[in-house]
Amino acid sequence: MRNKIPAILLFLFIYHGIAVGQSDSLRTDSLSLSEAISLALQENHNITVAVNATRIDENNATIGNAGYLPSVFATGSYNRTNENVTQNFASDTVAQTSQQNISKQYNAALNAEYTLFDGFGNYYRLQSLQSQEELGSVRSRPLRWVRFRTPNFGRHS
């Protein structure tokens, strides 16, 4: 009996602390169960990553990423040189000086590349990208429902 009294007092002390802590938190704004679940699903990092991966797959499934379109590269450069030159001769003659010798050089290049045939590699790359897009949309179909059909917490009803 003596061992039970301290255990009961300890239990009552802990229970009282929990009850007081919960009553303090009830005084602040509280969420309903559906709002808490919706908020947790919206802020879930894994769901955000899965939805973003689906969007990336949708953007990657293009003919440009498959290699059907030509590649175009443009480069350009500009070089300006300003020189002051003084020539001193060994025979004690007057030195010749030329100032503000300015030279300008412009360069531009435009390169275009297109692969005519690479053994149907472009075709198979496009099929692979489209199947990755399809697989990603199937995987994230339930996640899109959660992500985009959650209630707005800005307005209270």
Would you give an account of this structure?
The longest helix is centred in the first third of the chain and has 23 residues, at 4-26. The protein has a two-stranded antiparallel ribbon with strand order 1-2. Helix 3 runs antiparallel to helix 5. With 157 residues, the protein is of the alpha+beta class. The mean pLDDT is 79. The chain contains six helices and two strands; from the N terminus they run H-H-H-H-E-E-H-H. A hairpin with an 8-residue loop joins strand 1 (71-87) and strand 2. 51% of the residues lie in helices and 22% in strands. It has one domain. The chain is elongated and about 120 Å long. The protein has helices at 4-26, 33-42, 45-60, 63-66, 121-139, 141-148, and strands spanning 71-87, 96-113.
